[in-house]
Write a structure and sequence with these properties.
single chain; MJ1255-like; 12 helices; 346 residues; globular; Glycosyltransferase; Rossmann fold; alpha/beta; 6-stranded parallel β-sheet
Length: 346
C-alpha cells in the first residue's frame, strides 16, 4: 500500500500526531510520503521519523498577542501560490490520501476526485461535542479548510459520538515527579509578559519553551528553544503544564497524569472549545486571559487527572489495512472500553 499524507504544520500538535502515525505506518510496512504546510521549511525540527518529506507554503492562521486575526490571516494568504501548489501536487500511484487538516493535500485530492481520509481533532467538530466561540467564519473554516470524504475525529472523551481517543505515544507512567517543576508552552503570547507573570512565584521552577525564546533574568525561570527531545524530557518529570488549549499537548499531559492550565487563543473556536471540554470533563483548569491570580490558585492545586489511552495509531493503521470498514457502534465501544480515567493526588 502507498499513502500520501498531508499534515498541517502551523502548530506542533499536528506534527506530533503525525510522528506517532509515521512510526506505526512504517512498522506495518506501508510506503508513506509526507507533506507539511503552514510554516517556513527551516522552522521544522526533529523530523527524522518521516524519512524525508515535502514542505510547501499552504495556509496558516495569523496570531498576535494570543488572538487569531482573521483579517491578517486573509492578507497573509497567498492564493496563487496555494492553487499552484495544489495543481502541481503529483498524487498518481497512491492508494490512499490522508489529510491531518492539511489543505493542499485535501483540495488536490478533491479536485482529482481522489477519496480523502481525514484524521485529526478538527474532524470531531462534525459531531455533537463541546463547542464554544463559534461564528460563521469558524464554521466555514472547519468545513472547507481541509475537506475529507471520511473524517476520523479525535477527542479526550467520546461524548456519545462516533469519534476516537487521541493519537499519542503511550509512554510508561512517570515514577519520579518534581512537584515544583512546571512546563510553560504559550508560543502565541508575548514571552516577556509570560515571564513577568511567572516571576513572583519563586517556589516553582518554570521551563518555558517558545519558537523565539527571550532571555530570563530569574533563576527559577528557564527559557528554551523548541526541541522535541528536550520538551519531552522536561514534560516527563514535571508536575504540570501551562499552555494554550491545543489538543495534542493536552492529550500527552493527560496520558502522563499532569495537571493542566489552558489559556485558549482568543477568536479561535477550536481552542475555546477545547478549554470548554477540559473544564466540562474536569480534566484541567482554564484562564481566558493571562491572570496571575488564576495561575497562583492552579500552582497550589494538588490534584490531576490521569487518562490511559490505547494505541490509536496502531488501531487506525490496522483499520486502513482492512479496507476502512464503517466504524460501527461495536467498534467505537470496544476502543473506548480500553480507556481508564483516574483522579491523582500530587
Amino acid at each position: 500500500m502507498k499513502i500520501f499524507y498531508g499534515v498541517q504544520g502551523t502548530g506542533n500538535g499536528h506534527i506530533t500526531r503525525a510522528r506517532v502515525m509515521a512510526k506505526e505506518l512504517h512498522a506495518a510496512g506501508i510506503d508513506v510520503h509526507f507533506q507539511f504546510t503552514g510554516r517556513p521549511s527551516d522552522k521544522y525540527f526533529d523530523m527524522e521519523v518521516f524519512n524525508g518529506y515535502e514542505a510547501r507554503t499552504g495556509l496558516t492562521f495569523h496570531t498576535e498577542k494570543g488572538q487569531v486575526s482573521y483579517l491578517k490571516t486573509a492578507l497573509d494568504a497567498k492564493p496563487i501560490t496555494f492553487i499552484k501548489d495544489m495543481k502541481s501536487l503529483d498524487l498518481s500511484g497512491y492508494d490512499l490520501v490522508i489529510s491531518d487538516f492539511e489543505p493542499i493535500t485535501a483540495w488536490a485530492a478533491k479536485s482529482r476526485k481522489i477519496p480523502v481520509l481525514g484524521i485529526g481533532h478538527q474532524y470531531a467538530f462534525n459531531y455533537k461535542i463541546p463547542r464554544e466561540g463559534s461564528d460563521p467564519i469558524a464554521d466555514q473554516v472547519i468545513k472547507y479548510f481541509a475537506p475529507a470524504d471520511v473524517g476520523v475525529g479525535l477527542h479526550w472523551h467520546h461524548f456519545g459520538q462516533p469519534i476516537l481517543p487521541p493519537i499519542i505515544d503511550t509512554p510508561a507512567t512517570p515514577q519520579n515527579v518534581i512537584n515544583n517543576k512546571i512546563i510553560v508552552y504559550l508560543p502565541f503570547e508575548d514571552q516577556n509578559e509570560v515571564i513577568r507573570l511567572l516571576s513572583p512565584f519563586e517556589n516553582f521552577d518554570f521551563h518555558i519553551y517558545s519558537p523565539e525564546p527571550v532571555p530570563s533574568t530569574f533563576s527559577h525561570i528557564a527559557c528554551n528553544p523548541l526541541s522535541r527531545d528536550g520538551f519531552q524530557k522536561d514534560l516527563y518529570d514535571c508536575v504540570g503544564i501551562i499552555s494554550n488549549a491545543g489538543f495534542e499537548l493536552a492529550s500527552e499531559s493527560l496520558q502522563m497524569g499532569k495537571k493542566i492550565l489552558a489559556k485558549p487563543l482568543h477568536a479561535q473556536m477550536e481552542q475555546i472549545s477545547n478549554a470548554a471540554a477540559l473544564k466540562q470533563l474536569g480534566y484541567g483548569h482554564v484562564m481566558h486571559d493571562m491572570d496571575s491570580s488564576i495561575i497562583e490558585h492552579w500552582l497550589h492545586d494538588d490534584r490531576a487527572v490521569h487518562v490511559t489511552y490505547p494505541n490509536i495509531a496502531k488501531i487506525l493503521v490496522q483499520w486502513i489495512q482492512n479496507g476502512m470498514p464503517e466504524m460501527d457502534g461495536d467498534f467505537i465501544e470496544a476502543v473506548w472500553s480500553d480507556v481508564e480515567v483516574l483522579q491523582v493526588k500530587l
